[in-house]
UniProtKB/TrEMBL annotation:
It comes from Clostridium tanneri. The lineage of its organism: Bacteria, Bacillati, Bacillota, Clostridia, Eubacteriales. InterPro entries: TPR-like_helical_dom_sf. Keywords: Membrane, Transmembrane, Transmembrane helix. The chain crosses the membrane at residues 173-193. This is Tetratricopeptide repeat protein.
Amino acid sequence: MGELIQYYKQGMKYFVEGSLDKAFSYLTLVASAGIEEEKLNNAIALMLIYKGNFEEAYKIFALNNKNYRDGISERYLSSIEQINNCIEKHNLAVSLIKQYKYEEALFHLLSLRTLGFRTLNDDILTCSIYAIKRDYVKCKEILEEMHLINKEEVFYYEMKDYIDKKKYSKFKLYAASVAAVAIIFSSIAISGFNKKSNNTEKEAISKPTVSVKKTNAETDYKILANLSNDMMKENLYDFWAKDKELDSSKLDENSRSLYNQLKNTFKDKAESYFYNNGLELYRSENYKKAFEYMSIAYENKKGSYLDEHIIFYLAKSAKASGKGGSEYYREYINKYPKGCYIQESLYDLAIIDYKSNNIKEAKKYASIIVEQYSDTMYNNDKIRSIIE
């Protein structure tokens, strides 16, 4: 039946098993390749709701209800008012959390659960409040329920590690609350299932019978599915590494469009992501990895204020990892003659050139230090010995 059918079946299998991140990657890939099927659409819509993208989910439900008149889409379309009420109650809880009124917030969060509307972000907030109250038993109960819905939920593992080991350096409780608070300005992520209805709906769409418009090379589809998963998790390093293995020319038009969207998202985020992580690696003295991250940031410069910092730390990490760095120091000096790192760049380049027996260039940069920065720590014996 073709590779796409296999990805469809695998995506549905992940969905039923509760591996929603993988399921979403596989099924959106299949949908982009031209499969039209009621159960596929419902699965994607349900996951979009869980992830908080109500607008896109309800577009799919509306289309499904129009084409197939199925029970799942009709139920969700008829429950918009109730969902809006839950959103209002959620936002009230968020407001109370901002005022440190945890008991009142917890009351409203628990009342949402009794209504049957399970939300990822409300579970995160509830867990966080229980952890603050040191009621770890109840916190673990909610964590396990979250794990049943999505076995790949990062919060589950971070909070579980915090509770089990009390590793404050690895998990800061406030980060979870802040992340959940941010949804007050957008759609919240509602799973909408109790345990019984969750399993029933998953089982109802677990056996697809579809036709495929077009098939492509299995490896390229697999890579594209993995790229989608990496981008969803904002794992940009893995995305960058896997992207080299993909031959986009072998994809059909719809899949290539999805790939181009992923690439554009990567380009938007890559500069700051790799710079910030590269800087942390440099500060922790992992110079080889820092050079790799700074190199990727350099490849994705956007002409922003970060460019100056990227070029400088690319030069520093290259020097520290034994890769020279002179070309990046020269680029920095030429582009930013009044930059915030100019003195250190002149100094490092003078030393590098001198050690490379490029005496003329070494003297040029050493002379600039002596003439323009004579009262700084860089005008030292090493620099004066180069000039002499």
